[in-house]
Amino acid sequence: MAVKLEKKAPFKGDHVGSLLRPQRLKQARLQRANGEITAEQLRKVEDEEIIKLVEKQKEAGLQSITDGEFRRSWWHFDFLENLVGVKGYDSGKGITFDGIQTKSRSIKVIDRVDFDESHPFLDHYKFLHNQVGDQHVPKMTIPSPNMLLLRGEIDEDAYGVEAILPDLTNAYRKAIQAFYEAGCRYLQLDDTSWATFLSEKGLQSLRDKGYDPEKLRDLFTRAINESLEGRPDDMLITMHICRGNYRSHYFSEGSYAAVSEIIFSQLQVDGLFLEFDDERSGGFEPLKHVKRDDLHVVLGLITTKVGEMEEKEEVKSRISRAAEYLPYEQLALSPQCGFASTEEGNDISEEDQWAKIRHVLEVSGEVWK
Questions:
Q1: Domains in the chain, please, with CATH?
Q2: Residues 249-290 pLDDT 10s
Q3: According to the UniProt entry, where is the signal peptide (predicted)?
């Protein structure tokens, strides 16, 4: 069993989870796609590269250790399409990010949604757990249930949008318990759904799809909280709220103010990883809506999109400004997002990636002595 978290909170210097794939792994995945190597041969390369990655994270000084999402193509689709009743497929079109487009992929709900122990992410976690050892904490990252509601095509013969909720949240409760039984004590839900409420452009996109934004906010809130019902008391569950991250481009923008009362007062997570790396995120004023002394907010002040390093004293100053709204003991520091939400990765070098992580740990070590 890995070392226990001292308290139900993220580490003061933490990270979101995904890391740049090494070239050897990218090449092996391409070879597998072309039928040049077997699934077993690819798995061997993934195993070897994850073992190296675990050691690199330890050497950098991280306490929470992930597998970098090395076995995934996407941060969300890979998990969701392996749920019972969900199918992944080539949609013929990608998602537009600030002028560029992803490769094509989508998911559809074709039957009743469920989770069973054949889901490959359980084995992914068990492998990570066995590599981490007892002095660090293995962290598992999965997409939030809202991502199936937002990104999945739901066959009307199978469900209506609200009718899917009981099965979806039950599937997540089963997943959380399965990860727990595999040894997981630190689980993160990654979620871009909240970003659609942060700007008029995002709200209009929902209306164009026939959604009532206010009702959808309520549905997303229920999806999170009902998924967390009955979770183990000694399991830390956080959420990363993201505005999109693909090859150093973003999807949406806007202050948290539009949903601050929901995310800070209603969501039953233990911690929130929030992007605050540039003007797209607005200021820290929405933190005033935190009414819980057990909710921890991880400030994503270090960007993963470019290699240029943030000035240390400016980062400290920004933490100080956030502390005007929330006590230091409820704050922490991390990069604003993962370094590779998809296997392509951001336009940043591995050297700069590790420098950014060390920077987070150095600053956090000085702020929270």
A1: 23-367 (3.20.20.210)
A2: 555 567 888 899 999 999 999 999 999 977 766 789 999 999
A3: none
